[in-house]
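Worked problem 6 (solution included).
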Amino acid sequence: MEKLSFWEQKENPVVNKSKTFALHIIDIYKYISSDKKEYVLSKQVLRSGTSIGANIREAQRGQSKADFFAKMNIALKEADETEYWLELLHEKDYLEDNFFVSVYEECEELIRMLVHILKNNYVK
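Solution. The predicted structure is:
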């Protein structure tokens, strides 16, 4: 039996993690925009936080190895940007400590996964 490639595996950890993270980011956006009445930073974290998974999904269907790596690098940059927005939201007291720590750790884990994929040349 032929071994499945990284992207053909039924359970793909980075795809699953990025989707779960995006759902948490959507919840953060809804909370901050409705309860805290903050619209600019919340929209930024929504955009970058949901873009991570979208770029990972696009990478799965990359037309070439270069396209795959380009999309995965964009996902990594979006994850870095999301960390920044989360830090600002926390430092301006829009996110409580316990909630911030949880989602920030999720983001850091995604970054570690993406760096690992890019450094170890996983290909489609």
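Discussion: The CA atoms of residues 15 and 53 lie 7 Å apart.
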